[in-house]
Batch of 2 targets.
Target 1
Amino acid sequence: MTTHSLEYWQEKAANIAICGQAYVNGSYVDAISGETFECVNPATEQVIANIASCDQADADKAVAIAKTVFEKGLWADLAPVARKKILIKFADLIEQNAEELALLETLDMGKPITEALNTDIPAVVNSVRWTAEAIDKVYDEVAPTGIDAVATITREAIGVVAAIVPWNFPLWMAAWKFAPALAMGNSFILKPSEKSSLTGIRVAELAKQAGIPDGVFQVLPGFGHTVGKALALHMDVDCLVFTGSTRTGKLLMEMAGQSNLKKVWLECGGKSPNLVFADCEDLKAAATAAAWAIFYNQGEVCIAASRLLVEESIKDEFIELVKKAAAEIRPGDPLDPKTNMGAVVDKQQLDTVMHYINKGIEQGANIALGGERVAVGSDKLGCFVEPTIFDNVSNDMAIAQEEIFGPVLSVISFKDEADAIQIANDCNYGLGAAVWTSNLNRAHRVSRKLRAGLVWVNCHGDGDMTMPFGGYKQSGNGRDKSLHAMDKYCELKSTYISLK
Ligand code: NAD
């Protein structure tokens, strides 16, 4: 854990140089239009930078460069071991600049500095390093044909990959895309969220410093409906990878259909259930995990366990335990290393969260904890919401079905195992699900029945780079992390050689 003081981070924040330019062909540049938009720190509501607002013209330019570089084979034709060395250096450089990157993340989107430094940036480093280390250890295939042929099945880079990512874990989600895309030899264009452009912009320079050729790693900040749309509709973008809302994911699939049928891989939203059975051995541990499973990162987490399903017989006792655990989680100055909950990303998201809290009340749920916007610090500014728990929620209420993406927990009771599974699966999303029980048979039975890409037993959110990450149903189609992620970034070629 960081040992730096609040004063250390305040001073560093006061002196940090922030770049808001796009990164095209190995250089920082303004948007061709010259347009910019403001980057606002949600904890202070102060403008901290102006960001290049890229659009169609910038997308056209960056894609043309990416395509040329790919065709020349400057990166794609390097031996895997050569790409590996450069990517490992890239990981090392990210690690060496961890404090600056963590601070940019905190100032940009409001997460606590302790989390940015000790969780986000190490995860980025691990993602790049792990993927780099894998690429010269993965073999292609020889098909079991007859003696009159040699048939190979090989993986080749796709070409130009564009990634459109969200703001909740800005560099972390980007790394889950750029690590495997670059490892496979593609040219890569990052479109960060307009709410969190800073680390994506900064890391581009480190890619160049590591030895990644110009034009292989480019960054186009800007809005979804401008530069995001231009990339999604582009005839020379071969693959579009996305993390964000289900609503946007659906639009991107349509745009692929309207253009060149580019491959589209989606990691979308969630409304993950957390099932607590009365036979759970350690209810206190389960309650602490349940609180963190929703309030971590201000609830702005795709796998946030926003539906807490509790067996009827222990519901009252369990809610009290969750409330006790949640009392330890308080919004505070994100630059203070003691803060364990930061600011919601911006005013718009704050309004969304408050809208859902009001809707929960209107629809008849009871507030068991929180429910208010709170002021932090002497200036009383900032987008802060306290941990909020709703009791007496039925699974058809908006707060049980729609992704809020904020610190709001809906508690629903169930009668028995079948009822729990039915409620858990009664949702359009299928990203994560957790089960708390001491019964091994039940743990296996329930895990198999849950329609979710990620299932945790007696924990929530655990996992590492060796495990694929992605969802069922409207939570998306692809998988990030692990060797499975590589499949998104390559074509599969069958070559049949007839022998005489
Ligand atoms: P969002 O869909 O609003 O935006 C995501 C990205 O898409 C941004 O870069 C945005 O600029 C871009 N975009 C928006 N409209 C676009 C358009 N018309 N054309 C092209 N691009 C467009 O999502 P968000 O609010 O930034 O992020 C929150 C969402 O991300 C939540 O739903 C969350 O569950 C999801 N998420 C999923 C995962 C996962 O792995 N499944 C991980 C993190 C976040």
Target 2
Amino acid sequence: MQTNTKRPEIKTPPPGPKAKALIERDHAVTSPSYIKEYPLVVDHGEGSFVYDVDGNSYLDFMAGIAVTSTGHAHPHVVKSIQDAAAKFLHICGTDFYYESMVTLCEKLAKTVAPYMGQTKVFLSNSGTEAVEGALKLARNHTKRTKIIAFNGAFHGRTMGAITLNASKYTQKSNFGPLLPDVYHAPYSNPFHCPCGVSKDKADTECTCASFLEKEFFTRHFQASEVAAIIVEPIQGEGGYIMPARKFLKDLRTICDQNGIVLIFDEIQSGIGRTGDMFAAETMGVAPDVILSAKGIASGMPIGAIIAKTSVMTWGRGTHGSTYGGNPVCCAAANATLDIIGDKLNHVKVVGSYFIDELKKLQKKHAVIADVRGVGLMIGCEFLQKDGKPAMDYVGKLEQLAFRKGLLLLSCGKSTIRFAPPLIITQDEIKVGLEILDQCLTELGNA
Ligand code: PLP
């Protein structure tokens, strides 16, 4: 049965003539490194909908890669940006003071205070810069060099971050030499856990973290040489994987026992996406440092390093940025945090509806092998009949859904990530899932 909710409308099969013309101009002048998942040429957006240059509308289940947390062009965010821009565009927060920057750092510190205690905040322009800053901070604080990251990780595109990445070789091959002293360990994945534990027991019995002690600290180096363990508390690009809670707890214990800084990269999982402001709260583990970006300012470029005061010990002049914490971005972030602060329960409610409905689709379509996630950070893994990742299928699904007015985005080997704007309604989710159901029926099995 169809709802009365607004539905996406495809009037001209995309890419329409205006889209085609722009794509042609784009291909002539833009870097060939851009991915361009499908030929979506955006004119404007509103709430959970995106409109293309040929007058088609699309329901957005990916939010510009989990960024437009408050939906497209939220009036309060837009007004805050306009007001801030009319006052002053820039003065440099590294060297001078302004109210919106202080307010933002206060808000972030207050959010994490119940589980991290007293924190201080450094503002960057992007997620990858927050990652770079955190690596510098951990080394500077511990006077150690080694960093541990995880298989499947994605932390950004700058040199330090690509060294940490281990999801797709294209992101790092031919860019070396990379950062020395970075080591990768298996990431807990209850669906097929590297430690072999079954899915139903993983949360309490996963032993993936013991790899660090058994392998690294036995064969390669001492734990006392490690500056930081950096981990996504829910893996993003790697496949929207929710690790076992025990895995994160064990990492916390290893860090406590050895003076290692535990960094949670919450660039994708943070700012309300899990139904809590940060996944640290959802997973019940407090890190020493939280990194934020993406959803924090609804699409304006800003990132944050939120670190325990006892860890953010670097001295005056050790780290800075010309644009980091720009006043216009701070205004957008302050407005976003106010809106999202009131939406956390909504995310939990519509998120569980979303997961329940996907599980119903899983019963109908055998190609859906796993449905996982929390809040509006939901992954759906597709496997072929022979158990191999249904990579081509997922590519076709993205394309078909787009042509029917639903914006999807894949991650991992063969997972669709559902990361819609956090203001999405239950009816909108229903409409999107009806389209998804149609696509799966058309595509059949893999
Ligand atoms: N860390 C995680 C977990 C991410 O998902 C991303 C981006 O997808 C980044 C870091 C990099 O952020 P940015 O693209 O803003 O540099």
